Amino acid sequence: MAGLAALLSFGSDRTTTQTLRALSDALAPRGDDEAMAEHGASRLLVRAALPKIYEGDGVALIVDGIAEVTSLLTRFGMHGPSGLLSGAQPYAVILSDPDGLVLARNHDGPPLYYARSRGAVLVASEPAALLAAGIPAVPNEAVMSRFLNTGACDEVPATFFDGIRRVLPGQVVEVSRHTGASGQSDGWAVRAHPPAPSRSGRLSARMALLGALGDERTGMVLLGAGQSDIALPTAALLGVALAERESHRGVPVYSAALPGTGKGVPNFTSAVLGPIPDGAVRHRALPFYTDEIDVDGFVADLGEPVPGLSGYLLWAMARATGGEVDTLLAATGWRGPTGHLSRLSDRVAARYGVTLRFPLKDLDGTDEGLRAELQTIAERTLPHASLRAAATHSAGLDPALADVLQRLRAELATALLYPRTGEQDQVALAGLSQLGKASGPELERLWRRYVLDRWLNI
Questions:
Q1: Half-sphere exposure of residue 172, counting CA atoms within 13 Å on the CB side?
Q2: Please, what is the average pLDDT of the chain?
Q3: Are 346 and 111 in contact (CB under 8 A)?
Q4: Which percentage of the chain shows pLDDT scores above 70?
Q5: Rounded to an integer, what distance in angstroms lies between the CA atom of residue 432 and that of residue 417?
Q6: How confident is the model at residue 392, as a pLDDT?
Q7: In terms of C-beta density within 10 A (0-12 exposed, 13-18 middle, 19 or more buried), how is residue 127 classed?
Q8: Which of 232, 236, 242, 282 could join 250 via S-S bond, C-beta 3.0 to 4.6 A?
Q9: Are residues 151 and 9 located together in one domain of the fold?
Q10: What is the pLDDT of residue 180?
């Protein structure tokens, strides 16, 4: 994943140089080398293994992702900003023209963020870069409240930072000179277009699963994301990975084991993988001890909170498997919030070289037709005993969140009794006092409260 950044301002001085250096340093995890270019009022910056700034027809362009640059420039010349959205591949673009900047995310391309600062506009692939360049780190109370109560995030332009906005998937944002009453330019106007509707139509389960497979070393994680009906999608994904493997090597399969926090996960793993022929899978249970849970490192890498214990486990599993696989497939996203998954995948790929793919996140988990298709796929690709075991042991696919929270009880109590912002969370305190009786949604909210507090702490 490349690191993109841009600065749009009137004039150039020592502050401009300092801002660009701060942006570049903060994006260092995304690439060892950098390229910079001045184009009109814009300064463009890209960090990557092979950074490249494209120029032609009076514009300059930087891209994160797979895109045909010549075609993009042609389409921009013919159709304007909307021409930057084209094709099936996800990518992010920052384009500089005489009027200012155009930002675009094709489909669910890599994230882009922007903010105003002292008459200038800054853009970057991560909020951390904008903060390093001087944007105040003021928490957005409305976004935090929505996240705490629903788990939703990354689905609207507002971020967890009050002064930072995101470009949504399929969206174009124009930043151009604003002309005041005197006829002189007095700042920059930001125009965010409505996101373009998806052009993919109704995607079949089989095509979604096959589309996630590639030529690179691909593994799979057995993780339920706290969803009670995730066993069937997990089984179908495993079956397709087995059926489509092109070598005699077994498919790498990983599960999360939290020693001392229940027996459900090993039961699910052994029951489902046991009937599969020897050599078809290479399973490794990754142990994660509750006294070694690094939520601070997790939120520092991701920049903002994400919901669910599964988000943390996916990050930790990718970090542990770097060098073994290039891609990890997960059934996460079948139901529940999905907006954060592209950010999770982006940050993990940039830091650990492992791409997380969620082939089911764009499917409708309530569609009975899709469920029937997944059932058929699983029946055709897995031994009957594995499929039956997946349904029988579905409740044990995830580590027990209640047990994890119990081990973190002291830290949770401190976070709830002495909150970093606002008043004490009485709902969370009540849940903490009755962990053994708390419902699934109450436990999920308590975990989000803990993650949010750790994010505020850093």
A1: 17
A2: 90
A3: yes
A4: 93
A5: 11
A6: 79
A7: buried
A8: 282
A9: yes
A10: 59
pLDDT of 376 above 80:
yes
Give yes or no for residue 220 having a pLDDT over 70: yes
Same domain, yes or no, for 222 and 176?
A: no
Over its C-alpha atoms, the chain yields an Rg (Å, rounded) of 23
Can you give the pTM of this predicted structure?
A: 0.93
N residues, the chain: 458
Q: Which helix (H) or strand (E) holds 42?
A: strand 42-48
155 lies in the same domain as 26: yes
Residue 303's SS3 state is coil
Q: How far is CA 159 from CA 100, 168, 389, in A?
A: 23, 11, 41
Count other C-beta atoms under 10 Å from residue 286's C-beta: 16
Q: Euclidean distance between the first and final Cα of the chain, in Å?
A: 24
**Those residues with Cβ within 8 angstroms of residue 283's Cβ, 6 or more apart along the chain or in another chain:** 253, 254, 255, 269, 273
For the four alpha carbons of 191, 193, 194 and 198, in that order, the dihedral sign comes to: negative
* Strands lying side by side in the sheet with 251-257: 281-287, 251-257, 218-222, 327-329, 355-357
Same domain, 227 and 173: no
> Which residues constitute the domain of residue 290?
205-399
Which of 367, 399, 431 finishes a domain? 399
Q: What is the pLDDT of residues 284-334, one digit of tens each?
A: 999 888 888 999 999 999 999 999 999 999 999 999 999 999 999 999 988
- Contact assessment for residue 2 and residue 56, using Cβ atoms and an 8 Å cutoff: no
B/e letters for 193-218, b = 16+ CB within 10 Å, e = fewer, are beebeeeeeebebeebbeebbeeeeb
